[in-house]
Amino acid sequence: MRLIVIGGDAAGMSAASQARKRRGPGELEILAFERGDFTSYSACGIPYWVGGMVDGPDSLIARDPAAFQQSGIDVRTGHEVTGIDLAARRVAVRTAEREFTEGFDELVYAAGAVPTRPPWAAGPVAGVFGVQTLGDGAAVQEWLSSVRVRSAVVIGAGYIGVEMAEALIWRDLKVTLVEQSPQPMSTVDPDMGALVAKSIENLGIELRTGVTVKALETEKDQIRAVVTDAGTIPADVVILGLGVRPNTALAEAAGIPLGVTGGLATDLRQRVTGPKGTVEGVWAAGDCTQVLNRVSGRQVHVPLGTHANKQGRVAGINLGGGYATFPGIVGTGITKICDLEVARTGLSSKEADAAGFRYVTATVESTNRAGYMPGAVPMTVKVIAEKDSGLLLGAQIVGRAEAAKRIDAFAVAVWNRMTVTEMTALDLGYAPPYAPVWDPVLIAARKADEAL
Amino acid sequence: MRLIVIGGDAAGMSAASQARKRRGPGELEILAFERGDFTSYSACGIPYWVGGMVDGPDSLIARDPAAFQQSGIDVRTGHEVTGIDLAARRVAVRTAEREFTEGFDELVYAAGAVPTRPPWAAGPVAGVFGVQTLGDGAAVQEWLSSVRVRSAVVIGAGYIGVEMAEALIWRDLKVTLVEQSPQPMSTVDPDMGALVAKSIENLGIELRTGVTVKALETEKDQIRAVVTDAGTIPADVVILGLGVRPNTALAEAAGIPLGVTGGLATDLRQRVTGPKGTVEGVWAAGDCTQVLNRVSGRQVHVPLGTHANKQGRVAGINLGGGYATFPGIVGTGITKICDLEVARTGLSSKEADAAGFRYVTATVESTNRAGYMPGAVPMTVKVIAEKDSGLLLGAQIVGRAEAAKRIDAFAVAVWNRMTVTEMTALDLGYAPPYAPVWDPVLIAARKADEAL
């Protein structure tokens, strides 16, 4: 039996590894095609590489093709799958040298995501980069070291945009961060976004919110400036942090149905499903799929390495004859901007509105440690709870230290459908170097309980 | 109506504050008696005060008597309650100057805990100290600054003993830590205790486990050495970290029934209960009470400020005419020894055995951050799960940074009776500065799932 995997990053290679663990090479042949040069890498690490905190690209690679080969997974980089023939059970593959087809019994579709590109960013321009792949990271690095770069513009102030803006500050550039919406990090509420905005500005980044990019200005095919509805910003390098969409082109062409978000829809075991049921022998995992948000009950597209790894693992266990399910997400996300930590889980106010919830919010100021301990710094925690029921719908944290990972307590509470009233009794870790006697998480739950 | 509170620390004053919040002075008179000099202080902060990291004692006081008086709570320090007459509804009180009685309608018993003292530590010896109260902390400070102290012996290697041993190292003393059981921190499993032992020794503390203290050697009523079954250890100062038991003497004398652990038993609303039902108008909270361990289903005595605060708050809300419950604990505890962080929740292997569980364990080595990030250091996570059902019974973490508070994810999972299988899907925060793409919590859950 032969398994073909399309995409050699987190989702695809996790699936391949788990399948291999359960079925030996005599039982299952595994062939993975990756169009780029790298396998199983941490795209999330690219900003730290560009910022000079981390050596790259090798350190960002969890497992290279040689290691996979050794464990009996035939992974081929520089191989782009160009077509899937479901009836004939084969894929068409192209390399720099040749084109050929390979047959499969089972297929894992893990093609990832493709960057969102507005019309003004449609064509390639020297000095304009996305940051999706290690190749992108290498290209940015080369540009920064070979061209005389003074001014950088980062377009889009989501996770990657904010992280790249910080990275470029570390490279001693003048950085402008342009965002169409009124706040950076629109995954958190406006009041929390305002704290993020202040921190971005304190870092020396020029933050321009509510600004729409209209065009890129070039000179000899090289970037020169970003033209916006609020003026032109000179730029020797432009980073695009405009988000991504599921890379489903091959699936669509093969007649594989898409879900409501435009991502591939799967069942709990990561088998691709459509209106007519499961697509026989086709699995999907990672950024090309949609996932269930367990709080809203809606399908969403949340491209994150952590989900991709979990989904890939689940697909691989099932392919290997085991049983595992991916029961969805609760919308957890964390990041840092310099020493500011930002975290969220569950639904933001906007998302709660969209899902139809009636809710109360409570925001508290506390500290990471007992107030009298050295290193005690402020932390803001916001909780969103359903009116009447008190069900925890979401939480957001902004703080200067030991803040972001506190979201995990909320994430597990959301997962288990706890009420904020029940949360006030939670037995969280207490010791003066790590928390006030009432942890900020508990204080926020208390305040939400009182607000009900 | 008059409420009398016995004990002016966390539990008692939380109760008083919550009751006051809900009932004005015209409706409810609140009188609190504290035999010591301080109210609402952080005893947990004493080691950091002794170690010189924190100024004391003022900074360790959350709220002083004057602040309580201002909010309409008549708290009297230096007032020791010496008797309770339940039938006559009054307490006998003694100060340095006089004795008197005061009547009550409602009583909150929050007398805390008293240190365990073996026969050899029965009488007071100059240079031998407990560390239960701020007064104890002040006495240690005075001794260290007024007497020529070179060698310190800390007896008992639980939380407070370990923390005090570290504090005394910061004071440039030669420190020996003596523990009767074979490992320090017997609240964690032996394999995790071994990691703690190594860290204690690396700190320059001489750790002597499996050693029983037989006597204190004095000269002119002043400490000179600690005599053990394995030799005599010179000591210019001795710290007793031998644990505490519920301070129930007054309650017993008044005929108030005790629970199976020797602590006061309460219902969910913190009303004292006995075999014949609720004791009318008597509430209890804090270190003098027993609490439900939600995992073992057993009553336990766990003297911790965080539980005391919660129980006091619950008692006060109910006293004030509101409704709140304290549904028990899951056994969470965290501490640090220099840069080693130690955490546990749920049941240890020994506790799981005692409760009658059959279980599997899984231990993993991971890192606090993505391996390629600066500051990535090792972390060991151990998970205990019920055989067959996969129910998470407990978890322990030892690490060098960003380790201890990771226990909260486990604590919330234990609280919600999750299985380790379900835990593998948890949506915990991921970003390279804060976690590997599989958080150590998830890796441990995966390994336990595989062990089932």
TrEMBL record, chains A, B:
Pfam families: Pyr_redox_2, Pyr_redox_dim. Gene3D superfamilies: FAD/NAD(P)-binding domain. Residues 2-303 form the FAD/NAD(P)-binding domain. InterPro entries: FAD-bd_OxRdtase, FAD/NAD-bd_sf, FAD/NAD-binding_dom, FAD/NAD-linked_Rdtase_dimer_sf, Pyr_nucl-diS_OxRdtase_dimer. Keywords: FAD, Flavoprotein, Oxidoreductase, Redox-active center. GO terms for molecular function: oxidoreductase activity. Its cofactor is FAD. Residues 335-436 form the Pyridine nucleotide-disulphide oxidoreductase dimerisation domain. Belongs to the class-III pyridine nucleotide-disulfide oxidoreductase family. This is Putative pyridine nucleotide-disulfide oxidoreductase. It comes from Actinoplanes missouriensis (strain ATCC 14538 / DSM 43046 / CBS 188.64 / JCM 3121 / NBRC 102363 / NCIMB 12654 / NRRL B-3342 / UNCC 431).
